[in-house]
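<goal> How does this chain fold?
<sample>
Here is the protein in question

***
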Amino acid sequence: MDFNASDAAPAIPGPRTEERLPQSAQAAVKIVIVGGFGVGKTTMVGSVSEIRPLTTEETMTQAGIGIDDNYGSETKTATTVAMDFGRISITEKLVLYLFGTPGQERFWFLWNRLFEGALGAVVLVDTRRLDVSFDVMGRLEERGVPFIVAVNSFPDAPRHPIEELRGALDLAPEIPIVECDVRRRASSRDTLLTLMHFLHSLARSGALT
């Protein structure tokens, strides 16, 4: 049987120019963005990523009624079912790979895989649903993943002094807690920089292995 060039499978396109890893990059770090349902994980990854983010959002159906807690996110029509993925260059040499976890509790079984190899985490918090954060932080502590807490600024969410939130979340004094607007790239980037500074301090003290 004759084979013609026209019979060949179409070439698989490579990454777009803007999505290629910078040649100057010397180190890559895996970071996870975690939190309860609707706290802004997908938005944060999308706002700060320098490449087109990968999302696994699916339309919410009635199957989740009575199972998923969507308090404060009643207008949300899609949810992450696997992960979000993005990338940001912190410096010319340091690149962060960002993995956003699914927020609905029935998908939390995926978290253990996403936590593997993660150097640190950002825990996004909604002050309307602080109780959800305890399970999130507990899972990170069980896996030994250092984290900071970022309070996402929802327009209708109550605002509290940082130290009051620290007490309510029972956070150790050394764990940073910051305010963040995940819709703004600069704010999300500053949050990631806070995490990197925290990880650096842990490494210098010998607490990060």
In short: Residues 185-205 form the longest helix (21 residues). Helices lie at 41-48, 111-115, 131-143, 162-169, 185-205. Residues 64-68 have pLDDT under 50 and may be disordered.
